[in-house]
Amino acid sequence: MAASLLLACAAGAASAAPARKPARAAAASAQEPAAMYTQERQTDHRDRDDLLTAGLGLDGLRALVPPAFADAAHPSAAELRRRALWSNWRGIADLAAGGGYGELYGSLANVPGREYSAFARLPGAHQPHRVLVQVPDGFDRDKRCVVVSASSGSRGVYGSIAVAGAWGLPKGCAVAYTDKGAGTDYFDLDAGLGVRADGTVGKPGEGELAFLPDEQARKAGGIAFKHAHSQDNPEADWGRHVQQAARYALRALDRAFPEQAPFTWANTRVIAVGISNGGGAVLRAAELGEEPWLDAVVAGEPNVYVRGARPLYDYTTEAALLMPCALLHKPLGAMPVAPLTGDSAQSFCDFAAEHGLLGEAARAGDTAARAQAAYERMRGDGWSDEALRAGALSVNFDLWRAVAATYASAYARNAPAARADAAKAADQPWVHYVYSAATPAGPDAPPAARAASDAERAAWWSDASGIPPGAGVQLLGPAGASRLQSMAGLRELWTGQPLRADADQSALKGAAERVRHGVEQTRAGAPRKGLPVVVVHGLDDGLIPPAFSSAPYVAMARKAGASISYWQVKNVQHFDAFLGLPALGARYLPLLPYVYAALDRVDAHLAGGAALPGDAVVETVPRAQGQGLQAQNLAVPK
């Protein structure tokens, strides 16, 4: 990549203080009918508890083990919430000593206040999504601000606490969250148990559940989770989930401060922020509404797809098959790879060559030649060296397979696949992936599915990331097929071309059409003209490379006349939480400081007319191994 000069974060043309939203929006609070929200709850968080860390503080969040449950099989709602906050902080932010959190950037202040939560349902959806609003006791009634966010990845409703909560709550803003139709509301198909509004486990009929597969799907056996098995293709509605969470924030503020009601789009400032899938969600929200409701958007490393670009499913399924081999290309100087599939990186090279993915020369060549061919293929398809090197993390953590299996099911709106020992039920067509608790069966044998224990099931809501494997739930491929063959099946669903000799081409055509149709439903449009938007992306992102996401989105939005700023940050990859590992901390820098800085800039613009940030390519300086992070390492645009 050609060296880039740091662009001065040029102040755009100075402007007068921004006008309030049009008065016509004040006629109503823009709230939806009460029937759209169910299982509404209010909880207070004070006295060794708070909104931001549940009373854990930095020391408690840094603890290597999660907060314990008094009864492992039957945790209380308060225990589950505390542990969910611990899990989501640690899954998103670098809290390690020397990492700079709470010193150079970010806040872990004790913020007492109230939480208002509910299940929200979009018209036509099979399943609800969670919305939650945190209202600090120090809410600034003069500023009247809401920060709305969506969870990154497929995390539960607290999945954006380190992004939106850490910035908005200490500033006196209410913060609204949504799990955007994914989350950790797993359903145990064997036991017939799901998750209630407070996170505890219950049976259908014992209060509304956050995710309840239909009766036919419940015969499949194993474990179902909402992102893959809701049959709603939630990604298609990410923007609407965010908007509905913002509407619920107005409803919550009316209840919290009835003497100042109504809170409306016209009299309440709304800023949307999110990273990763949450970043994609807030960009989709920026498209919505005949009347202005959003005041600004900040999107970090967004998973966003626009016409002419490569969608997540395309480059994920390519990476699943080719990246382990490409990373063996010695001149790349990549991190070591150890695929968790039980296959060596060399076996990926052999499989790709034998199935015609690397050309005829590679078919007859040795591993080095095949690795070079895989590298050149991926480079030709838009992957940078930086994205390939950082992509080793996704290889080592088996993310490509996990993401591809989940999204294939979501895009095709599949029900859970039937486990071999379950009664006949609706199956995932084409690639038969099952999710289950499992017992390891040896180094050369797949895990054996089993029933989940009470303790495992009780902790899913607080501990899981929303996409198995993890939290005791395993991803089990089709019986008798190698994992490489199963991943080839996932790739076939995008290309429509069979890679396996036994592939049924007529069945493949229909299955691939369903997946492609689901992907097309997620395509983003331009934000509302005049809406300030800042996109922040690390140039070393190996999970959602900016070449496939932010760069084409910014180009599309600008062509449509949008007001958009783009910060490209060198030496930043996708996962801040991994920077506590010494080797990664010495190579990469965190993304969150730039997201917070962008929020500061748009907030200053909305409050007093300060200039919006200009574009920047940020020339960072990685810290030496063993050294604490310093401001000069970050070079945050001013």
Describe the structure.
The chain is built from 19 helices and 17 strands. By secondary structure, it is of the alpha/beta class. Strands 1-2-3-5-4-10-11-15-16-17 form a ten-stranded mixed beta sheet, sandwiched between helices. It is globular and about 75 Å long. The N terminus is likely disordered.
Provide tags for this entry:
alpha/beta, 19 helices, 3-stranded antiparallel sheet, 10-stranded mixed sheet
Radius of gyration: 24 Å
Distance between the termini: 25 Å
- With strands numbered from the N-terminus, the spatial order across the biggest sheet is 1-2-3-5-4-10-11-15-16-17
Instruction: Determine the mean pLDDT.
Output: 92
Name the shape in a single word.
Answer: globular
The main sheet comes to: 10 strands, mixed
* SSE class: alpha/beta
Number of helices: 19
Number of strands: 17
| Low-pLDDT runs | 1-20, 23-29
Strand composition percent: 5-15%
**Fraction of residues in helices?**
25-40%
Summary, kept brief:
With 638 residues, this protein is of the alpha/beta class. The protein has helices at residues 57-62, 77-92, 161-168, 226-229, 238-256, 277-285, 312-326, 345-354, 360-364, 367-380, 385-396, 399-412, 454-463, 483-495, 505-520, 550-559, 582-585, 592-608, 631-634, and strands at 37-45, 113-120, 129-136, 145-150, 174-178, 187-188, 194-195, 201-202, 223-224, 269-275, 296-300, 434-439, 448-450, 474-476, 533-538, 564-569, 616-618.
